[in-house]
Amino acid sequence: MWQELGIALCLMLVLEGILPFLFPQRWRAAFSQLLQLSDRQLRWMGLVSMLLGTALLYLLR
Fold first, then answer.
1. How many domains does the chain have?
2. Across residues 3-21, what is the average pLDDT?
3. According to the 3-state scheme, what is the secondary structure of the chain?
4. 23-36: per-residue pLDDT in tens?
5. Would I find Hydrolase among this entry's keywords (predicted)?
6. Rg (alpha carbons) of the chain, rounded to whole number
7. Band of the pLDDT at 55, cuts 50, 70, 90?
């Protein structure tokens, strides 16, 4: 299980690095907009992201 978790972490880092690598100015602008959001909005985004990821994993397995 630890190996799969490590692989998932590595893939996440690769995927998260694609946008800053390909579009650094757009990524910086999007990140600046994220800094303007309230804690509550960021928490909702995080919750939705986790639930979507969990649902997709369930469907793929």
1. 1
2. 94
3. CHHHHHHHHHHHHHHHHHHHHHCHHHHHHHHHHHHCCCHHHHHHHHHHHHHHHHHHHHHHC
4. 999 999 999 999 99
5. no
6. 14
7. very high
CA distance 59 to 56: 5
Q: What angle do CA 53, 25, 41 make, to 5 degrees?
A: 40
Is 52's pLDDT higher than 90? yes
Look up the domain containing 52 and give its range. Answer: 2-60
Polymer length of the chain: 61
Q: Give dist(CA 36, CA 59) in Å, integer.
A: 34
Token reading at 47: 């919750």
CB 27, CB 20: distance < 8 Å: yes
